[in-house]
Fold:
Amino acid sequence: MPFFTKKIFPPVRMGKRVIVTAHGNTLRAIMKHLEGISDEAIADIDLPQAKPIVYRYSTRGWKRLTGELKSGRPLR
Structure:
């Protein structure tokens, strides 16, 4: 989250669009933070491959606009 906070969030806050590509575990960590997903629930999230997940930031917080997440396959 330090990298996200220092490098990704500032341009987003200024209204710029940012693309983040990373390993699934890194993306899950970011999603956990943005959506307030519990430790238990995030372990079951299966991210789609090659399909974007789009978020919008406002002063009220983050909202996922696109991207269906599948649950049920434990990553443990």
Remarks:
- The helical segments are 2-13, 24-35, 39-42.
